[in-house]
Specification:
There is one protein chain. The protein has one domain. The longest helix has about 35 residues. With about 180 residues, it is an all-alpha fold. Helix content is about 80%, strand content about 0%.
Amino acid sequence: MNPLAIVTPVSRATPMAFLTGLVLLAVLDAAKTWYGLSLVSTEGGGDGFGFLSMGLIGLMVVFVSFLFINRRRDAGDGIMLFLLPVLLAVLISVIASMVMLTAGSFQVMGVFAEEQGRDVMTVAQDPAFQAEFQAWMEDRPELALQMVGPAAWAGFAGFWVTSFLFGLWFMSMKREN
C-alpha cells in the first residue's frame, strides 16, 4: 500500500490500498470516538476534547477525501466524483446523530414528565414545560450525557457505512489501458 494515498491528494490508490486506507481511518475514528466518550463522564470531564475532536473529524474527512480522489486517479477517471461519497457520508452522519439525539431527548423528556405526573404528549407543546424541562436537564447533566453516546456512535456508523458502500463502487472501477 502506498501510505501517501491517505495523506496526499496526488497519489494513486489501488483498490486494495483504498480499502486498507478506509479500514485504517475507520479504526482510528472509532478509537477517537471511544476515547472522547470515555472522557465524558457523569462528572462532566473531557472539557478540552470537544475542539480537538472537531479538528480530528475535519482531518478525517480530508483524509477520506484524499482516498476517494486517489482511487479515482488510479482508475483514470476525473477526480470530482469524490465529492459525492464524502458529502453524502457527512450528511448521513449528521442526520443519524440528530435522530439519535432527538430520540434520546424524547426518552429523557418522558422521564421528566413522569416525575411531574404529566403526560409527555400533552405537555410537549407547552412553553412552560419546555423551560422546566431545560432547568431540570441542567440539574442532571448525567442524563444529557447519556444521550451523547448513542448519537456519537450513530454518526460514526452513518459516516462509515456510507463511505464503505461508495468504497465498494469505487473499488470496482477499472483502469482503462
